[in-house]
Please model this.
Amino acid sequence: MTVTVDGLTPYTVCAAVLAVVQDHLARAGRKPAVAYVASGGIVVDSCEGGYLVVAPERVFRFVSPLPTEALPDEQVAGIGLDVVIRLERCVPVLTEAGDAPTVEEQEAGYREVLADAAVVWSACASDDMVLDGEWERSGIDQLFVGPLGGCSGSETRLTVGVPIDDWCVGYTETYEGED
Model:
C-alpha cells in the first residue's frame, strides 16, 4: 500500500524545520554528520560527528494567538505542532580503566554542545523559521541532555502554527494486487 498526502503534514513541517536548522549550523561551521526527521523516539548508534533529529511531539488545533489550543466549539485559526529538535555530539567520558576525563577535556566537549545549542536557538528564533510567510512560531525552549553513552547535547522545543487550509488537504491510497 502507498499513501500520498497532499498539503502540509507532520513530516513536511519537520523537514522544513530541519532544513532551516541545518542551514544555520552549516553557516556556523557546525553541520552534524547525520540529520533526519523522526516520529517519536530517536535511535542512533553513534554520535561521532554529531547528529540532528527533528520530530513532531504533538499536533493540535489552535485559535489566535498561537499556541492557545482550540476548544471543540471555537473557530480554529490553524494547526499547531510542537516540534522537538535534538542535536548531540560525543563528549569525553570515563575510560575503560575507569579514569575520568580531565576538567579541560570535559569543558572542551561541553563548550561544543553549548555552541550547538546557541546556533539551534538562533535558527528557531530567526525570521527564517517563519516559513512561507504564513507559518507562525511560538514557545521556544531548550534543555540539555546527556551524557549518555558518551553523547550529550540539547533538545529544543518549538511550536509552529500553519494555516488550517494547507493541512493534510487530501490523500490517496494505492493497494498492490487489486483490480
About this structure: The first strand starts at residue 2 and ends at 6. The helical segments are 10-27, 103-125. DSSP finds two helices and seven strands in the chain. Strands lie at 2-6, 34-37, 51-62, 78-90, 136-148, 151-163, 170-174.
